[in-house]
Amino acid sequence: MIISWYGEACFLLENGGARILIEPLQKKSGIAPPRLKSDILICRPDADIANSPFIINGPGEYEVKGISVWGVADKANTVYIIEMDGIKIAHLGFLKNDLSDEQLARVGDPDILLTPVGGGDVLDAEAAMKLINKLEPSIAIPMLYASLSPFLKESEAKDPSQPKLVIKKKDINEDETKIIILDKV
User: Fold this and answer.
1) Every domain of the chain and the residues it spans
2) Topology (CATH level 3) of domain 2-179
3) pTM: predicted TM-score of the whole model, two decimal places
């Protein structure tokens, strides 16, 4: 599986058979939206999307091309859990508050956690680290930040960023959480 970050909460997940685009950038963000083709699009209900593939934009259970997706509702957000190539990825979306015990149980134990860390309208660095410690993913990837410094300080992570994450199930280390910083594509 290949995970690429396009800025804000936008990620592209790819394997040999499918491409999943999560939270594509909107023109109003001020960042040019990537021109990407995908088999599955996961986005907010108010996203301005034309010529879309299979769209997932709310809570529920979905299966497309052998990929399972669960949407777990929050007050004004949906957390998505994607199972692809035997790897469980949780995309926290625009999460502003900690998850309830029920939501934590539904999210379960993701292998990879894509979490907001920038504060303001989403989790800040401290709240993100508390949630990372609760969920105990093998890999945590920050998103939705203007400055990464507060998160690097809070997580004690280094910033040797990489252009993308290429990973297989056998590469998942369940003994510790590794913070991976992705460069914006």
Assistant:
1) 2-179
2) Metallo-beta-lactamase; Chain A (3.60.15)
3) 0.94
